[in-house]
């Protein structure tokens, strides 16, 4: 994985954290221009995630003879254990610590559908969200994985077209007939294609190293995100997110040795999954005991940072290696020497 992409993934995760801080602590009521910025634009972290996801999946399968079923198993091993853990923790908090999550309610059928990545109306009545609310993005991720698995049956040069055709069929044609949930009709699903396209450009050597041009691209992308509304999402936030990813890749030589940025990127998935739980607890304590919200946010950031590192090391890595070893019939100690 490119360290520049890891750094951007970490930035995207923490941008979403700040967005939800404004929601949980201030009910999306701005406390200054920075707070308003995170309220209005913090959700763009998801768009960056989706572009990076398309890029990573393309690069990780390029040049490999990987059967579709094996690809899907590997992605499930990578995504599911941590997601199930934090979903179940959320369910337990809703049942046994309701004051922490006053707007949440639990329905066992909905919990099961959440664990299976099937979009359905949240029992709290605020939209199609799983038990762990941030998991709505993983429903899109799983759709992308399934469709990309089909594309592995085709040669590398046409995979982008195959995935694009399948995405269009699912999100536009099939949802219109009610075969697939209308949840997938959002144009955000096409942001994965932008990541695949960037991966193709990178493998062909068309993304060269640079400094001023990539920095200009980053500045232009950030200005576009700042001035444009999130609709239409693919055009207004998806394309600038793709420019951010591409520009950061061109800066790889300046960060390629940074262990800190790599670690932050490694932990970003756990940051994304756990942050709402930590912020909810922090918001409850701040309100009950009159603690300054920004001081409590600092405590939450520390807790999320340490917790995500422990989660990455003890949940994500260990579960992935153990499950992969079962499928590959390879000793776990051999996998521990491989790059994760």
From TrEMBL:
GO molecular function: acyltransferase activity
InterPro entries with a match to the protein in the record: Acyl_transf_3_dom (IPR002656), Acyltransferase_3 (IPR050879)
Keywords of this entry: Acyltransferase, Membrane, Transferase, Transmembrane, Transmembrane helix
Domain Acyltransferase span(s) in chain numbering: 4-309
Record field: transmembrane: 42-61, 82-101, 134-153, 160-177, 209-228, 263-285, 291-312
Protein name as catalogued: Acyltransferase
Organism of derivation: Pseudomonas monsensis
